[in-house]
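User: My instructor asked us to take a sequence, write out its structure as C-alpha cells, and then describe one feature of it. I'm not sure where to start. Here is the sequence I was given:
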Amino acid sequence: MREIRKELKTALEKGKVIMGEKESVRAAGAGKVKTLVYAANCPVTTREKLKLIATAHKIVIEQFDGNSVELGTMCGKPFAVSVLAF
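Assistant: Let's start with the prediction itself. The C-alpha cells for your sequence are:
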C-alpha cells in the first residue's frame, strides 16, 4: 500500500487537492486527477461509484485508514471530508 498520508501532505502543500464527493467525481470523470482517496466510513454507494469511475479512467483509488473527520482534520479543514482527489 502506498503512503497515502505522505502523498496527501505533499499534494496539500502544492494546493492540488480537490475535496468533496461531487467535485472529486467531476474531476475524475474529466481525467484531471491521478488518485482518489475515500475515508473508511464513506458510504458503500459512494465507494462503488468511485471504483467504477477509477476503473473506467485508470485512476488509482485508495482507502484512507481513518474516518471522514480525521481526513478533514488532516487536510486542515474544520469539517469532515469523505472523498478527495489529487
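For the description part of your assignment, you could build on this observation: The first helix runs from residue 4 to 14. Try explaining in your own words what that tells you about the chain.
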